[in-house]
Structure formats: C-alpha cells, structure tokens
Amino acid sequence: MPRLLIVHHTPSPAVRALLESVLAGARQPELSSIEVRVEPALSATASDVLEADAYLLITPANIGYMSGALKHFFDVVYYPCLDATRGRPWGLLLHGNDNVTGAERSVNSITGALGWQRVAATVVTLGPPQPADLAAARELGATVAAAIAPG
Questions:
Q1: What is the DSSP letter of 27?
Q2: What does the pLDDT look like over 17-31, one tens digit per residue?
Q3: Farthest CA pair distance, the chain
C-alpha cells in the first residue's frame, strides 16, 4: 500500500486547523488505497521518510524561515535519504503572519537538493485560516495523496 508521510510542526491552533484539513483531503474515501502517516517534525525519522512514497510538509514561517522543528527534521533525514528518495512527490503548506518567502525558499532549496518532485503549488495561509485556506489545504492533501494512488 502506498504511503504518504505528513511531517508537521503545529504549535498553534491555526496550523493545527490546516493540518486537519490536509488530513481530510488525504483521507477521502476515493484515496482509501493510500496509507497516511502523520509525524511531528521533531520525531520523524529517516526510516519514516524511506518507508514513504510521498511527503507533505507543514510548517509555520518563523522570523522569515521554516520552523526550527522542520529544519531539525531535514538535518536528521538529509544524508540517509539523499539518494534513496529522489523523484518522490511532495507538497508544502506554510502558515505565517506576514511574509513566508524565506521559509518557502529554504524548504524548496532542501527538497530540490533531495531531488523530490513537487506535485502541487505551495499553499500559503497568512493570519487566521479562512474557509478558502482550509479548502486549499484539503485540496493539497488530496493532490499529494493522489500522486501515489495505484492505477
């Protein structure tokens, strides 16, 4: 069964709500052939990454950068996964209070070096999530899961 790994840092109710919407999208009945695994960025391991077929990353933008927790995740998994995960699909959700440009650039740099293939545009939410933001998060979850669906 194909596996989607969702790695997240959800320190606020806003980011938690976005994670829940991503999960709703990834767990739609028509995607029941996909196993969805959810791991906090501080506890996700290289084994988690190696066992997954696609990745969805969720992070707040802190002081213009990805969260320290997501950076820690990349520090832990980068070398063990460098060659083994090339070409795997991935997506990104960012939450910020103003500008998330630096956070997006840093995540894109690392995933590019890993050779992962983006399958959806980054979903960016600024401030409290609105219904359109939650819908975009749900769509992101469905899109990344569908990228590894059989058939």
A1: T
A2: 999 999 999 999 999
A3: 42
